Amino acid sequence: MPLGAKLLLEKxxxxxxxxxxxxxxxCGGHERSISLAxxxxxxxxxxxxxxxxxxxxxxxxxxxxxxxxxIALNEEVILLAFGDMLRVPVNVAKGxxxxxxxxxxxxxxxxxxxSPKEVVSIALANPKKKVVFFVAGFETTCAPVAAxxxxxxxNNLFLLMSGRLTWPAVAMLLISDTPSFDALIAPGHVATIxxxxxxxFVVDQHHIPTSVAGFTPESLLAAIYSVLRQLIEDKLFxxxxxxxxxxxxxxxxxxxxLFSTLDITDAPWRxxxxxxxxxxxxxxxxxxxxxxxxxxxxxxxxxxxxxKMPPGCDCAKVVLGKIKxxxxxxxxxxxxxxxxxxxxxxxxxxxxxxxxxxGIKNLTAENxxxxxx
Length: 373
Hints:
Elements: H1 3-14, E1 21-27, H2 28-37, H3 39-42, E2 47-54, H4 56-59, H5 62-74, E3 77-82, H6 100-105, E4 109-113, H7 116-125, E5 130-137, H8 139-151, E6 157-164, H9 167-176, E7 183-186, H10 188-194, H11 200-206, E8 210-213, H12 217-233, E9 238-241, H13 252-261, E10 262-269, E11 273-282, H14 291-294, H15 301-305, H16 315-319, H17 351-357, H18 363-372
Parallel strand pairs: 1-2, 1-7, 3-4, 3-5, 5-6, 7-8, 8-9
Antiparallel strand pairs: 6-11, 10-11
Helix pairs in contact: 1-12, 8-13
């Protein structure tokens, strides 16, 4: 561990900590960094780090994924999506196509992409074909998509938007019931775009210490140390521990592009339900490129009832920080990365996938093993 991280860890161990402190880290990238660096294993046992709703693949509505699958199977299109989305399963009858990867194997022209630049290039290279870009992601994904729109896109390119804003999910957690966390580590990449001040409401309205963190052990430990001190000293404020790239107001140009091309809407989160003012959808100026207007509505109303997690899957509870990933009934038994039942086991930003890759075993299985010894 780097010297700066060691010094911060020593300072954390020297603090007069409460019996238990629950710190939620919103970002899937933070969860990955925490797990890869082994930060949980070196913190005092009284500190619990809780992964939060920061995985766009995990919360993408089931009906949107189903819509993308059906467009790819039934329409003469090239369908493009970020790689992780290809393996996210939907609820269908046994034997039916349940994800985009299976649709591709069935003959649909589905291509994984890594950036919007690839999308435009593919559309330009196939002028006689309709190209559909399935956009699932948070502000950091939607900002370059907005830039792509603002620059102008080919007439044959259509977008199926499933964009989301991050902060409304945290706001929903804070007002829905007793919060499952005592402090918050706000997402660094989102704050780079939207500014650290976007998270001030957590401190001002809910009196919960908050700090913005980067993705190195030093930045994460600095953020953890900051919120712990705030709790102990009862001096709450919004701390920015990622000053290299995060400013209070964020990237003004990126925000301008976002809100000149996309509208904020009430939107569903898979397994969670509608979160007010949390969605990003193409605005009226770009209606000619809105896939929802140009293709049949395959995601009929009935699918919204099926839009919950698969039977037995507790991904929604994991996303909301209600349970640990290894407390899910399917974790590391029926649900593993090569055969994901729930979306949290698919993406590199999904808490279940991250914990599984870190060697954390199924809690129920481990307890049963101890009981029989």
